[in-house]
Amino acid sequence: MSELLQSVQENVVFLLEFLAVVCALFAAAYGAEKWAKKVAGDTNRILTTRKIAVIGVLSAISAVLMLLEIPVPFAPPFYKIDFSELPALIGTFAYGPVAGILIEFCKIVLKLLMKGTTTAFVGDLANFAIGCSFLLPASIVYLLKKTKKNAVAGCVLGTFVMTVVGTAFNAVYLLPKFAQLYGMPLDAIIGMGTAINPAIHNITSFVVMAVAPLNLLKGVSVSTVTLLVYKKLSPVLKADMPVKTMEREENKMVVS
Asked: Which of 48, 113, 223, 236 could connect to 155 by a Cys-Cys bridge, CB 3.0–4.6 Å?
C-alpha cells in the first residue's frame, strides 16, 4: 500500500512539474512576442477569434501526426520521430510564439485523449518542452523581420537550440525521471542504447549518440518542409490581417 501511495505521489508531483513547465513556456512566449512586436512595429493583436480557430485546426493536425511515429535505427525503440512540429512551426510563423505554444499544448492534450500515455507522461513532457525549444527561437527571429532570410535563420537557430536543449534535458531530467516513475534502473535504459550502439556506455554518450541525432533530424526535416510550403499557406492563414500588412509581408518573402 505504501508503495502504491508513493507511486501516486511521484506521478502527481511530476504532473505538477509538467504544468509548471507549460506555464513558464507560455509566459516566456508571451513576453518574447510582445517585445518582438514592439521592436518590429507590429500593432496586430496576439490572438484573434480566427487565429484561435486556426490554432485549433493546426493542433488537431499536429496531434494526428504525433501518432504517426517512425522508429530510428540509432536509438532505442521508445525514441521515435514524428512530424507534429510541422503544423506548429507553420502556425508559429504565421501568428507568433504564443500561437506555437498553444498548438504544442493542445496537441499533447488531444494526443492523450486519443491514445493516452505509454511513458508515464514523460514522453509527452519531452515532446512539448523540446518542441517549444524549437519553435520559440525560430519564431522570434522571424517575427523581428519577416523575410525569407530570417525564416531560414530562425529554423537553423531553432534546430540548434532544440538539439542542445533536448540532449541536456534528457540527460539531466527526463531519463532519470522515466527510470524513477517506471521503477527501473537507469543503467537498464543505457543498456538498451548499448545494444544498438556499443559506443554508448553512460548517460552522456547515450544522449549524444541517440537523442541529439534524433532532434537534429527532426529539426532539419520540419524546417525544410516548412520553408517549402509556408509561402503558399501564408495568405490563407493570414486572411484576417489588414491587406497592407499582408501584402508587405508577402513582398518581403519574395525579395529577401
From this structure: 223
In 3-state terms, what secondary structure has residue 72? coil
State the burial class of residue 213 (Cβ atoms within 10 Å of its Cβ: 0-12, 13-18, 19+): middle
DSSP run (H or E) holding 105: helix 97-115
Q: Is pLDDT at 237 greater than 60 in this prediction?
A: yes
* Beta carbons of 179 and 206 less than 8 angstroms apart: no
| Half-sphere exposure in the Cβ direction for 57 (13 Å, CA) | 8
Query: Comparing C-alpha atoms, which of 222, 248, 241, 213 is closest to residue 139?
Result: 222
Which DSSP string do the residues of 130-179 spell out, in sequence order? Answer: HHHHHHHHHHHHHHHS-SHHHHHHHHHHHHHHHHHHHHHHIIIIIHHHHH
φ and ψ at 81, to 5 degrees?
-100, 140
Residue whose C-alpha cell reads 506548429 in the numeric block: 88
86, three cell numbers: 510541422
Cell of 198: 556499443
Rounded to 5°, angle at Cα 187 from 185 and 190: 125
117 phi, psi to nearest 5 deg = -125, 145
| Predicted confidence (pLDDT) per residue in 79-111, tens digit | 889 999 999 999 999 998 999 999 999 999 999
The one-character DSSP state at 183 is T
Which among 171, 86, 170 is positioned nearest to 134, based on CA atoms? 86
pTM of the model: 0.84
